[in-house]
Amino acid sequence: MTNIKFSPAAPARYAAAPIWRLLVLSLAFLISSKETTAFTSQLPSTALRHPKQHHVVLLSSSSDDDATNKLLEKARKLREEVSAVEQSKAEVQKQNDAEAQAQREAEMEEQKQKDQQRLRYSAEVPILKDMGDEVMERVDFPPRLKGGKSRIVTIQAPLPLGLVLGEDESIPGMTSVDEVAAEGNGAAAGVKQGDIVRAITACQTTMETPTWQLLAGGIGQPKTKRFMYSVDGRPFEEVLDAIGSNRMDVQGRDVWLVLERMD
């Protein structure tokens, strides 16, 4: 039997109620509580614990599963296609990079060969400038001897050179070294028999007149200049005169000879 306690603040009508009436109310309350417990015990546990989950299960079906699987399959195929495209692009880029690298290497090799060719057929010689100064510059001398086995050399030697020059019979317009005196200056400097003369220094005397002398009616004064003289295609007598003109150099400098020599 349930005991009912009244607080001091309970209504007066409950405190003054007869004992039999209180017993009836308590019995009705107990019966109501037992019926409620029995009813709830008969309900499915899932409905009480997870009402929403039961609702979701009722909505799912095999057709929804098929649609989901189809979407997943499409997504997988799409990923595979994207991966294949990316891989193809990477392979194309790799091939392009390899071709570009090969082209750069080929260009570098070609430029290297050109530089070697230029060094082989060029020489630094003194060049007379407009103001009268000599400046060392590299000058190209395309090969005149066939076969690609020749090279350009430069030699400086004082006069007399001790050389016997002649016209090359195999190459018209070319001057060759036919003989080299063993004790001559040319031999000591490194000139060899069979060398082809391509250029030499030559001297020329001109009359130079300053502006103030021209205004005063002066005739000027002689001045000797030295310059590089190309021998290619020049008459043989003119070549000999050019070599001899180096005696006019007031500074007494050595003669420059540019020679083409077979290796």
Structural class: alpha+beta
- Which percent range describes the beta-strand content? 15-25%
Indicate the percent of residues in helices: 40-55%
List low-pLDDT spans.
Answer: 1-17, 34-41, 45-59
* Shape estimate: elongated
The major sheet is characterized as: 6 strands, antiparallel
Quaternary structure state of the chains depicted: single chain
SSE order, one letter for each helix or strand: HHHHHEEEEEHEHEHE
Q: Tally the beta strands.
A: 8
Structure characterization notes:
Helix content is 46%, strand content 24%. The protein is built from 8 helices and 8 strands; from the N terminus they run H-H-H-H-H-E-E-E-E-E-H-E-H-E-H-E. The chain has helices at 12-15, 19-42, 45-49, 51-59, 62-120, 185-189, 211-216, 236-244, and strands at 122-128, 134-140, 150-157, 163-167, 175-180, 196-208, 221-230, 255-262. The strands form 2 sheets. Strands 3, 4, 5, 6, 7 and 8 form a 6-stranded antiparallel β-sheet that branches. The protein has a two-stranded antiparallel sheet with strand order 1-2. Strand 1 and strand 2 (134-140) form a beta hairpin.
